[in-house]
Amino acid sequence: MNERTDYIPAALAADVLSDLPADDADACEALTIPVELGGLRLDQALARLFPQHSRSRLQGWLKAGWIRVDGASPDARRKVCGGECVEIDAPPPPELAAELPEDLPLAVVCEDEDLLVIDKPVGLVVHPGSGNWSGTLLNALLFRNPGLAGVPRAGIVHRLDKDTSGLMVVAKTLAAQTELVRQLQARTVGRHYRALVQGELSAGGTVDAPIGRHPTQRTRMAVVGGGRPALTHYRVIERFPRATLVECRLETGRTHQIRVHMAHIGHPLVGDPLYGARRCGDVRLDGFPRQALHAFRLGLVHPRSGEAMRWEVPMAADFAALLDELRGGPR
After folding, report:
1. pLDDT at site 29
2. CA distances from residue 155 to 112, 119, 138, 256, 324 in whole angstroms, order as listed
3. Mean pLDDT by 10 residues, the chain (331 residues)
4. pLDDT on residue 219
5. Plot region of 102 (φ>0 → left; ψ -120 to 50 → alpha; else → beta)
6. Max CA pair span of the chain
7. Mutual orientation of helices 55-64 and 42-49 as an angle, nearest 10°?
8. What does the angle CA 152 – CA 155 – CA 156 come to, to the nearest 5 degrees?
9. By the 8 A CB rule, do 127 and 136 touch?
């Protein structure tokens, strides 16, 4: 077994590795097709021979040439006679990397025996998932502190979207994680963001609107009647001809909450590919490549000492550069 799987929690390892060859993740499996399977299509015969692999995975391996029958790469639809030698020499599935440590840079703002506070960069995915099984914050945390393999989700208690920058706190112990989750549920964690929204806002306000999965577009969230309660406070920081810089404070932490709420009131975030499709008419705003959202302040009560703590970080470089351009006047 690849030695890096020592970092994988036992329950997860049992689940992920169940879809790999029994002896080694990189092993080559070889079997002879029994004569009683003669007459079946090859993919059907393979599904019976290798029940530890899904049929869709076997079909994918056939197309990729990772399955050989009598030394050749066959068509999945060919029928077998029985007696053919089948060899599978495929790479391990990408899910195996979901909780492996990776040496990725982290901008650490504060660290002690209970907490790790980081300034997450743009482009870093927090949790592994479809299309992002590696290169995530979770992978980086497991490399920095292998002991986090014993804490659910490697100590992650809240998240930022891939293209949102700024402050996140990670619990380094189960006790710290339990306490931070309690604070989040009690809405006592202070999470403040700077967002550049389309259009000119005259004043601040509060959006109190439930958020749930979009009824027809499953990759989007939306304000829906049966959604979970969501509350966002916002105030105006600076105005520009076609945009407004606002500070948002969250009382709840729903998926895409600020993005959905600001779009809901007619002021989607500049650069938001999901909720802000309409153009502003300013090349600087229309060309910004991600949602203009930055978590600049985080406040909480330390889970061990009970001390009130607060951190702030500067705007991400690309966001700060955009604001500097806008302050230079219309374009």
Report:
1. 66
2. 14, 16, 9, 21, 36
3. 33 32 46 89 88 80 86 85 86 69 95 97 90 88 93 94 97 95 94 97 96 91 95 97 96 95 96 86 92 98 97 97 89 66
4. 86
5. beta
6. 79
7. 120
8. 105
9. yes
Residues 24 and 73 in one domain: yes
Q: Which of 231, 238, 237, 221 is nearest to 253 (CA)?
A: 231
The enclosing domain of 156 has a CATH number of: 3.30.2350.10
Q: Residue 52: enclosing H or E segment and its boundaries?
A: none
Hey, which residues does 86 pair with through a beta bridge?
31, 69
pLDDT score for 275: 94
Domain count, the chain: 3
Same domain, 17 and 128: no
Alpha helix (H) ranges present in 250-300? 257-264, 283-286
Q: What is the CATH number of the domain that holds 15?
A: 3.10.290.10
Give residue 13's pLDDT: 32
Domain membership of residue 215 as a residue range: 187-331
If you search the block for the tokens 């029958």, which residue do you land on? 69
Strands 293-301 and 165-171: parallel
Q: Which residues are known to be catalytic?
A: 161
Last residue within a domain, chosen from 128, 156, 186: 186
Report the alpha-carbon distance of residue 173 to residue 114 in Å, rounded: 6
Query: 331 and 192 in one domain?
Result: yes
